């Protein structure tokens, strides 16, 4: 049986998401501890409407109604330091009860030191591995020879190693069942993109004919990319293989969620909007919801609350990628026919909505929302673009 690990959590780990505690607990394989300093910092963060304040309140809601029990013998394999108190509390996660050891030290050697330094003292004293997502705190702790890690829950440090596009050579005379039974194909996850290169009869030489498809429900599903575009008639048609696959996946009836990454200007928002418009026209969805983060990383003065104007005007600055995409689409529509040019009359604008932009948004029932207001909102029968 593997030896239990012993973790001391920094405030940043809990403010990232209290569910991190359950993740670290690993069904009872590990022990979790915090200091009274962390509890005090969480208490200060409770007020407000930010994500961190929400998670601070969530942490205290998870604490079981009883007050726990004092611990007379240290659970960490070393004696309790004179003057310290340890209390065993419990957090309840949907029926799972996680013991949480709170280490209280009323007096430190140097009270002038920072909270981070004091938390590090506790980690060293009880041989606990410090878990922090604060990089500066991590570096300072490493300098003090404290064992420390950051928490990368359910994340991949090297996502580029994954391939989502696979090529197979196939004899046109054989059935696709041969592909479905192929061992390498069976190991692929659903929604991998497949290219089939047909080979000349009884040879390995490619004929030049290609077929495309997706792995759906464990089997190859051929997709006529160009036929899909001709049938659905998006305002802006995909122009390369990547955009064609992306658009076709977005409107596929079995697909509920797509994550797309790409360089700026590669058409992610543009193709997503075209897919949403098609689904809205078909009555498959009632409208489009565009969600974007309005928190900037470096410029506090550029945040939503510091902008002039009402809520829509403030939001407009952050929704510029959507407006730019809409306006580009409108110009294409105008050029396609006289009737469309008559329908979308008036100016278009990337920030202050003008006549043509307003009409397009109303026609396709497009809503804009920042991520802070999206929390707790039930979105039903909509095509959601989370930029």
What this model shows, in words?
The chain is 36% helix and 21% strand. The chain has 387 residues and is α/β, with parallel strands linked by helices. It folds into three domains: 5-149, Rossmann fold, CATH 3.40.50.1010; 156-223, Archaeosine Trna-guanine Transglycosylase, Chain: A, domain 4 (Roll); 235-243 and 250-386, Rossmann fold, CATH 3.40.50. A hairpin with a 2-residue loop joins strand 10 and strand 11. Residues 297-302 have low confidence and may be disordered.
Summary keywords:
single chain, 387 residues, alpha/beta, Rossmann fold, Archaeosine Trna-guanine Transglycosylase, Chain: A, domain 4, 3 domains, seven-stranded mixed beta sheet, four-stranded mixed beta sheet, 16 helices, extended
| Terminus-to-terminus distance | 44 Å
**Category by helix and strand content:** alpha/beta
**How many strand elements?**
14
Shape: extended
- Major sheet description: 7 strands, mixed
């Amino acid at each position: 049986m593997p030896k239990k690990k012993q973790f001391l959590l920094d405030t940043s780990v809990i403010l990232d998401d209290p569910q991190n505690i359950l993740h670290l607990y690993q069904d009872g394989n590990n022990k979790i501890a915090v200091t009274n300093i962390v509890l005090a910092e969480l208490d200060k963060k409770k007020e407000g409407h930010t994500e961190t304040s929400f998670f601070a309140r969530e942490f205290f809601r998870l604490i079981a109604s009883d007050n726990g029990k004092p611990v007379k013998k240290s659970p960490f394999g070393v004696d309790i330091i004179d003057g310290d108190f340890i209390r065993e509390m419990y957090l309840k996660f949907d029926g799972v009860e996680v013991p949480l050891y709170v280490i209280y030290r009323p007096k430190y050697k140097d009270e002038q030191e920072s909270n981070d330094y004091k938390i590090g003292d506790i980690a060293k004293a009880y041989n606990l591995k410090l878990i922090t997502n604060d990089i500066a705190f991590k570096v300072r702790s490493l300098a003090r020879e404290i064992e420390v890690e950051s928490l990368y829950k359910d994340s991949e440090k090297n996502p580029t190693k994954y391939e989502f596009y696979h090529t197979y050579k196939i004899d046109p005379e054989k059935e696709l069942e041969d592909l479905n039974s192929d061992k390498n194909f069976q190991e692929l996850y659903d929604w991998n993109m497949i290219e089939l290169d047909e080979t000349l009869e009884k040879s390995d030489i490619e004929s030049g004919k290609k077929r495309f498809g997706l792995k759906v429900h464990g089997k190859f599903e051929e997709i006529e990319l160009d036929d899909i575009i001709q049938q659905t008639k998006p305002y802006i048609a995909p122009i390369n293989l990547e955009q064609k696959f992306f658009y076709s996946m977005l409107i596929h009836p079995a697909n509920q969620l797509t994550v797309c990454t790409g360089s700026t200007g590669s058409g992610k928002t543009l193709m997503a909007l075209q897919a949403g418009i098609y689904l809205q026209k078909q009555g498959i969805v009632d409208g489009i919801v565009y969600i974007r983060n309005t928190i900037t990383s470096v410029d506090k003065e550029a945040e939503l609350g510091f902008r002039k104007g009402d809520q829509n005007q403030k939001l407009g600055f952050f929704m510029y990628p959507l407006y730019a995409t809409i306006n580009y689409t409108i110009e294409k529509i105008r050029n396609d026919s006289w009737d469309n040019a008559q329908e979308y009359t008036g100016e278009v604008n990337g920030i202050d909505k003008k006549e043509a932009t307003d009409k397009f948004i109303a026609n396709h029932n497009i809503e804009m929302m920042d991520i802070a207001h999206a929390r707790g909102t039930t979105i039903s029968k909509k095509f959601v673009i989370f930029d």
